[in-house]
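Contributing new complexes? Match this layout with calcium ion.
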Amino acid sequence: MPGTNIPTDVCCTLKYVQTNLKHFKEITIGSTIQYKVKTLPVLSDIAMGKPAAQSSIFLNYSAELAVDGNRGTDIYQDLCSHTDTADTNPWWRVDLQAVYSIKTVRIINRGIDKFKTDLSDRLRDVTVTVGLTDIDIGTTCGFFAGPGTLSQLVVIDCPTLPFGRYVKISMTTEYLSLCEVDVFGVKE
Ligand SMILES: [Ca+2]
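Output block (do not edit by hand):
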């Protein structure tokens, strides 16, 4: 079953193997068949270049700027996503265009800008969720209390390896600005 936790070594009941077949490899030793857990690679950069959206937009700081591969953190020079200033319940999401078990989500926070302004502490109370459709992205990955610091690489692990195609970053405070988002996951 998708999202089921997989044991870490040789296992299991035959029924369990049958229902999770793609996670196992069959090994024949003499007349004995063993099933071992496959080592599935954790893929990085699965969000880069993928379609992104956000709850609102400030000027031209669109959602795609958080997955454009530019890891710079000066919002004026490098451009980062930014929700509208009147949006007090902002969110950002990316469509991975395939289903993954999500392992980690990393956020690059904004840094000092050309006016020497430090707004890095706006990144706080960040919730990351995962889902199979763009209208139901409610499975919890993790949380970052913040406040963020200048150009901080915020690492949010997903201990339950939630299963989904969409990753959403939400805040309950205003101004959600993301310079880059990296998603790491295992392809299902
Ligand atoms: Ca970027």
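Reviewers usually confirm one structural detail per submission. For this one: Helices lie at 14-19.
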